[in-house]
Amino acid sequence: MLVGKQETGNRKQETGNRKQETGNRKQLKLKAFTLIEVIFVFAIIAILLAILLPGMSTLKRSVQKLRDVSHLQKIRGAWYEAIVNRGWE
Question: Which pTM was predicted?
Answer without folding.
Answer: 0.42
